[in-house]
Amino acid sequence: MKALVMGGGMSGLATAINLLDLGVEVELIEADEMFGGRASSWLDEDGDMIDNALHVFFPYYKNLMRFFEKMGIADNIAWKHTEFYYAMPGGRKASLRFKDIPAPFHAAYAFAHLLKDYKDIPRWKIIVAGMPMTSGLFMNIEQLDRLDSISMATFVNKYGSLDGLKLMEPGINGLTFTPSWGVSAKVMLNWGVKVFSSAKNARVGFANGGLGEIWVDNCLDYIRGKGGTVALNQAVTAINLEGGQVTSVVVNDSEVKEADIYISAISPYSLRRVLPDEAFDMEYFRDLWHFQHAPSMSLQVWFDRKLTDIDVTFFSTDCIFNTYADLSNVLPHIFKGGSMFEMVLSPADHIQGLPDRVIFDIAIEQIRDIFPEAREAEVRKWKVVRERQGVYRASPGMESHRPFQRSPVDNLYLTGDYTKTHVSSGGMEAAIWNANKTAELIAADRLDESISLNVEFEIDEPFMKYIRQITAGAIAVGGIGALALMRKMRKR
Ligand SMILES: Cc1cc2nc3c(=O)[nH]c(=O)nc-3n(C[C@H](O)[C@H](O)[C@H](O)COP(=O)(O)OP(=O)(O)OC[C@H]3O[C@@H](n4cnc5c(N)ncnc54)[C@H](O)[C@@H]3O)c2cc1C
């Protein structure tokens, strides 16, 4: 049996690997001039490493970790302290430092640590906004699902303080490229469940090298080693359907390719452009038109001297960047000399039309405001990355439009981080979980084999489990006291 995998990002490469393991013949085609999709990197004209964007890994990315272990590259993630820094104008800093103590005390400690130095918002407002953010820990899946109908800001405003939410805005923007008023409350609470469930899960890892460098070639070697083929510059330009089956796909408007099964690992925007009109008679494919692009951009700035000695993630509010790191501290063996800031610019809706130079000018002014050391420093080089950006906008209601990996077309499967999963609204763990799910479905449908590739995240802290059980019981008897209390406090 031959499979044609369309798209060579993380989900496409992982699907190809899963299918080869099942004994399926695989051909993978990619439109771009490099593999890795949004999780890629390359060398520029000076030989400097350019990441498509700053990516962080979390220990709760269980399926991604298993995938990296299988590829022999688990050590390519550089794990750091469980800490996030807030960098504020005038060089002020505060840190959310998770201590390695049982949950939820680790989170309480982290917030207490932050409040010591974070003075820009009244403390009570931060506490009152922080409680709804962590409330997902006490909800079951159905309760979380219901929160996909409202935005994060609406949810926090119900029980907490919008002023306090400002502190969480950089994290929300960095994860979803969307402001809190436009992003599903479920999406953010789902993330909170993982990070606030234990100190271990809040730990952040960085690519120990270029983002694509740490994983792409190992995957390509694995695929070729198992007899699979991969090709670049092969854009799918049409998918032909007949009698409820894909009969062929057209590549670069000319070459026709045939297989027994077809796996789309391309974005929903690309896919809906190459499907024939009759596909949209089916609601399943009409749903693809609900996906909107939440744009991002990336900025790398090389300075002639050190601006910080902090080797974890920074957050800043009221800037065009939100989440960033000084890679000269994160990866000192690679970025030698002065600081190198790698920054995610998002939401980028209002800046994406601006020229690179204007974007850099805005960013450097904000950097100099936050890091006084930068006022004297010389910028050796800067780079705005616009390619391979964005995620789908995780607006309220979007969860119901994410397509299941088995499509109504008999031999067509969809994968990619945007397809259906409870894991998250996107990101690398979702890309791998969905690649595993796709292979599980293909094994069942085509090979009559029942396989189980995905492992699920579970809260394993005993105390947290106990609290969840008690809270679930309390909710069952009608006690949503904590939230009601917060509401009362807010009204006062
Ligand atoms: C700025 C930024 C920061 C991020 N930070 C994080 C992070 O910190 N942690 C995290 O977990 N995730 C992060 N992500 C998300 C992560 O990069 C993605 O979730 C993951 O890479 C998605 O992989 P994918 O295979 O689903 O999609 P993609 O990587 O988009 O792969 C799709 C592939 O299909 C190809 N393609 C498209 N159209 C066609 C066509 N017609 N024919 C053939 N090929 C086609 C594309 O070129 C691409 O290679 C970030 C993303 C961005 C943009």
Q: Can you walk me through this structure?
A:
The protein has 492 residues and is of the alpha+beta class. It has helices spanning 10-21, 62-70, 105-117, 123-134, 141-146, 152-159, 162-165, 169-176, 185-195, 216-225, 268-274, 283-286, 327-330, 356-370, 428-446, 462-476, 481-491; strands spanning 2-6, 25-29, 41-43, 49-51, 56-57, 77-79, 83-88, 92-97, 205-207, 229-231, 236-242, 245-251, 255-257, 261-264, 293-294, 297-303, 313-315, 321-326, 340-345, 379-385, 391-392, 412-414. Helix 1 runs parallel beside helix 10, helix 1 runs parallel beside helix 15 and helix 4 (123-134) crosses helix 6 (152-159). It has 3 domains: 2-39 and 215-292 and 395-446, FAD/NAD(P)-binding domain (3-Layer(bba) Sandwich); 57-63 and 205-209 and 296-389, Polyamine Oxidase, Chain A, domain 2 (Alpha-Beta Complex), CATH 3.90.660; 81-203 and 461-491, no CATH class. The strands form 6 sheets. The chain has a 7-stranded mixed beta sheet. Strands 10-2-1-14-22 form a 5-stranded parallel beta sheet, with helices on one face. Strand 11 (236-242) and strand 12 form a beta hairpin. The structure holds flavin-adenine dinucleotide (FAD). The site of flavin-adenine dinucleotide (FAD) has 37 residues, from helix 1, helix 11 and helix 15.
Number of alpha- plus pi-helical segments: 17
- Could you say how many structural domains there are in total? 3
The N- and C-terminal alpha carbons lie at a distance of 67 Å
What is the CATH class name of the largest domain?
A: Alpha Beta
Instruction: Estimate percent helicity.
Output: 25-40%
Biggest sheet strand order reads: 8-7-17-18-19-16-20
Query: Which whole number gives the mean pLDDT?
Result: 94
- Principal-axis shape equals globular
**What's the CATH H-level superfamily name of the largest domain?**
FAD/NAD(P)-binding domain
Bound molecules: flavin-adenine dinucleotide
Q: What is the makeup of the main sheet?
A: 7 strands, mixed
Strand content: 15-25%
CATH architecture of the largest domain: 3-Layer(bba) Sandwich
CATH topology of the largest domain: FAD/NAD(P)-binding domain
Instruction: Tell me the number of strands.
Output: 22
The residue ranges in which pLDDT falls below 50 over 5 or more consecutive positions are none
Radius of gyration: 23 Å
